[in-house]
Every structure is written in structure tokens, then in C-alpha cells.
Automatic annotation (TrEMBL), chain A:
This is DUF1214 domain-containing protein. InterPro entries: DUF1214, UCP009471. It holds the Pfam family DUF1214. The lineage of its organism: Bacteria, Pseudomonadati, Pseudomonadota, Alphaproteobacteria, Hyphomicrobiales. Residues 105-203 form the DUF1214 domain. It comes from the Bacteria.
Length: 227, 219
């Protein structure tokens, strides 16, 4: 942006080598003589740059709208629907994502714990409790960006079939950097933010996300941090 | 001088309004112009009669699937896509249900327009036919009243799109079977309007596919 906005007044910045007073006078004269055409070029350049930059910014990360907050989790019921909002469609198109359709399942993501603090790879979390009704679910953890090549891939997630459960049917997964008894989910990287994804497959709640409440999704509790 | 700065303020305001217009236009144009979206990437599988694997779940020692382009895939779900181009004729997707849960979703550029899981299967078979409105009317007109077709017919909003096959491996030991179950789905183009030859064709193509999960070779 900084490179191109002076474009409209390109000659101004190029005359910086001249003595200062002459340059100032030159700028003043140019400024006074700035015609409608110069202003039009400036307005067009401003519009194009700001418009494209903001469109790029809004569609380069995750989905900007359409999430439904449930406890620490955010459900994305309309991410794969044909009537998804244009931003969601643009994000999907840029990432090559194939989102879960409403009849297939529902994606919930969490970047914070129940207290609202961002999930960090150096901390230990307990993820447990109930899940919404679904034929199968998976809980996975991922860091930001590409995977660290030096780290051996131990485990990225649990499925509803393989998770160890308490006698009452509840489960408790511990996300920690170090080995833990029970359902241990290794931190995907040494440091930095991590994200959890809960995918519910073949679930009736995809059509009625409003029926979800805090007690029907797994709680994410921070147990402690290494540093 | 004051006049000039007022003009400058006006130009800035016009620039901001233009920025808004450009922003909206860009966001709306991204799905149509993107070359990295799923519809464009899936297009290479148009000529296959089985899904192209886009995410094979890790089995044993082969951890990284090279063909994966899903940004954050589910490590327990094998994914395959069948692209269709309805200009060549309706596409028939046939899946046989197995022990693993399987789901099919039909996507077009605007998003998913149909999804079904194997719980909707009739006698272990799930047959979808994706067609355009004109092909649908033709198929309806050609229907034999005494022997109505049992296909699930879905009218697609665009001529191009893809069908996603997802198979969930609940346990690591089921992962080879999940990869094989994705490959066992058949996606064929109904070239002619009468169903008899294509039906036979589909049946022949299913036969080797059915052996796949039994052998559990992963491919």
C-alpha cells in the first residue's frame, strides 16, 4: 500500500534528492495545480487498494461470520450450505476446503478455553464431558500453519469409538505436552496457539444449532502451564 | 488552499466508497475466479469411474498422503471426490454400505446442495443420480410405469461440481478399510438416456470394488 499510494503523486517523492526548500515549493505548486484528474487518480487508487486489501484480509483466515458460540466452541452450521454467506464461500474457495454439508455433520472449533483464555501448546487442558448426539465424532488438535517436520506424528485426535470412557459413559481427554495417563492428546507443537476441532458426523444438531448449550459440548478446562 | 483540501477530502471520501464497492465485488468474485477451490481441483477426476482420493487416512507406516489438499483434514476420515460435468450426461454414484459409516454430499460452486449418509441406503445400496433439470424431465418421461426407477434423482444447480465421499474409520485398524471403501464407490456418467446398459455397466464396475474392503489392502 505504501508503495502505490504515492503513485498518484509519483514525481513528488522522486524529487526528494533536491534541496529541501525547493522540494517544498515544488510540492506546494503541484498541490495547488492538482487537477481534477489527479484527484480522480488518487480516489481510484485508494479505492482499488483499500478494497482489494480488505477483501484479501477478510477472506484469508477463518470464516469471518456465521459462527454460533457454544461455551468455548464455535459451531459453523452454514459453512457448507448452498446459502452460505459470500465471505464463507470465498474462504472455502481460497482454501480449497470441502466443508461438511448440513446432512453430513457439523464442525465446531475452539481457540479458547472455557475461561476465555487462548489455547496454548505449552499448557495442559482437560477436554471432557458430553457431546451432542451424533453417530460418530472426532476431536482433533492442530497448530497454526504447516506441521513441524521434526516432530514425530503421535496422535492428532480421538474418535468417539476409540476414546477411553469412564463407567458413566463420559470421557476426559488431556491435551498436554507431556505423556499423560488415559486419553492423552499430545500438543501438536512446542509453543504457540493451538486450535481444537470437534466434528460431529451424521448429527441432528446440524440443522438446529440453537439447541446446543454449554452443557452439551465438551468443557475445555485449563489445568496448568509449563512456564 | 482551503478549496484544494476540501477537494482532497471529497476525493478521499469517493475513494473510500469505491473501496467498499471493490471489496464487495472482490469477495463475490473470488469463488468464481478461484483456481484453488475444490470444484477446480476436483476436475482432474472427471474421467475416473471411482472417486479420486483427496485424503487417505494414515495407515501404519505411511503417514503423509501426498494428494491431500484439504487444509485441515480429519485424520480419521477418508475423503474422495468424483467430479461431474453434466454436459456429458447425468452422473450416477453407487455405493454399497459396509461396516463403516459413509456419507455422500453433492457440491456445486455455491456449496453443498445434497447430502446423504448410508443410513438412507435401501438394501445396502445407495444410488444417486445427479442431473440437470432438462435431464431430469427426460428421465421422468422415460420412466417405465410398471418398473419405476429406484434411483435418488437430484437436480444440480450447475453443470459442474463434485460429489464427496467420506468414510469414517472409528479405530486405527479400520483405516485401510476406510480408504478402500472410498475407492469402492463408483461414479459413472450415464451416457445414453435408457438405463439398461448403464445399469449393467455400473454393476460390472461395482464387482471389483466390493472385493476391496474385504482384502483390506488399502488400495
Amino acid at each position: 500500500m505504501k508503495l502505490t499510494i504515492p503513485d498518484a503523486f509519483g514525481r513528488v517523492s522522486m524529487s526528494a534528492g533536491a534541496p529541501r526548500s525547493r522540494a517544498v515549493r515544488f510540492v506546494r505548486r503541484l498541490w495547488r495545480k492538482t487537477s481534477i484528474a489527479g484527484l480522480a487518480v488518487y480516489a481510484l487508487a485508494l479505492g482499488a487498494l483499500l478494497g482489494l486489501a480488505s477483501a484479501d484480509w477478510a477472506t484469508s483466515g477463518g470464516y469471518p461470520f456465521g459462527g454460533v458460540q457454544v461455551g468455548a466452541w464455535t459451531a459453523w452450521p452454514r459453512a457448507g450450505a448452498a446459502n452460505a454467506d459470500p465471505y464463507t464461500r470465498a474462504v472455502n474457495a481460497r482454501r480449497g476446503e470441502i466443508p461438511l454439508a448440513v446432512g453430513e455433520g457439523l464442525l465446531l472449533t475452539a481457540a479458547v478455553d472455557d475461561a476465555g483464555q487462548a489455547l496454548d501448546a505449552t499448557c495442559t487442558y482437560r477436554i471432557g464431558g458430553a457431546t451432542p448426539p451424533a453417530r460418530a465424532w472426532t476431536i482433533t488438535v492442530a497448530g497454526r500453519g504447516p506441521r513441524d517436520p521434526g516432530r514425530a506424528p503421535l496422535r492428532e485426535g480421538f474418535t468417539s469409538t476409540e476414546v477411553l470412557r469412564a463407567p458413566d459413559g463420559w470421557f476426559s481427554i488431556v491435551l498436554a505436552p507431556d505423556v499423560q495417563p488415559g486419553n492423552w492428546l499430545p500438543s501438536p507443537r512446542a509453543t504457540g496457539p493451538v486450535r481444537l476441532a470437534l466434528r460431529l458426523y451424521d448429527t441432528p444438531v446440524a440443522a438446529s444449532v440453537g439447541s446446543l448449550d454449554r452443557s452439551s459440548v465438551p468443557a475445555v478446562t485449563r489445568l496448568g502451564c509449563a512456564s | 488552499m482551503r478549496l484544494v483540501s476540501l477537494r482532497f477530502v471529497y476525493a478521499t471520501l469517493i475513494g473510500l466508497v469505491l473501496a467498499g464497492i471493490v471489496h464487495i465485488a472482490a469477495v463475490l468474485a473470488i469463488p468464481a475466479l478461484s483456481e484453488a477451490d475444490a470444484v477446480s481441483r476436483a476436475r482432474t477426476s472427471e474421467n475416473l469411474d471411482h472417486p479420486q482420493s483427496i485424503y487417505t487416512v494414515a495407515t501404519g507406516d505411511d503417514p503423509s498422503p501426498p494428494e491431500a489438499w484439504l487444509p485441515i483434514p480429519d485424520p480419521a476420515v477418508a475423503v474422495g471426490v468424483c467430479a461431474y460435468n453434466l454436459a456429458d450426461g447425468p452422473m450416477r454414484v453407487s455405493a454399497r454400505t459396509g461396516p463403516l459409516s459413509l456419507s455422500l454430499a453433492a457440491h456445486a460452486r455455491r456449496g453443498a446442495f445434497y447430502a446423504v449418509t448410508d443410513q438412507a441406503a435401501v438394501r445396502g445400496a445407495l444410488d444417486l443420480v445427479i442431473l440437470t433439470r432438462a435431464q431430469y424431465d427426460e428421465a421422468l418421461a422415460d420412466d417405465d410405469e410398471n418398473d419405476p426407477s429406484r434411483d435418488v434423482r437430484i437436480v444440480a444447480p450447475d453443470t459442474r461440481g463434485f460429489v464427496v465421499v467420506r468414510v469414517i474409520a472409528g479405530l486405527p485398524s479400520q483405516r485401510p478399510a476406510a480408504n478402500a471403501a472410498v475407492q469402492a464407490v463408483s461414479c459413472t456418467t450415464d451416457t445414453s438416456t435408457d438405463d439398461a446398459p448403464t445399469g449393467k455397466d455400473a454393476a460390472v464396475k461395482d464387482a471389483p470394488g466390493k472385493d476391496g474392503p474385504g482384502k483390506g489392502t488399502g488400495r
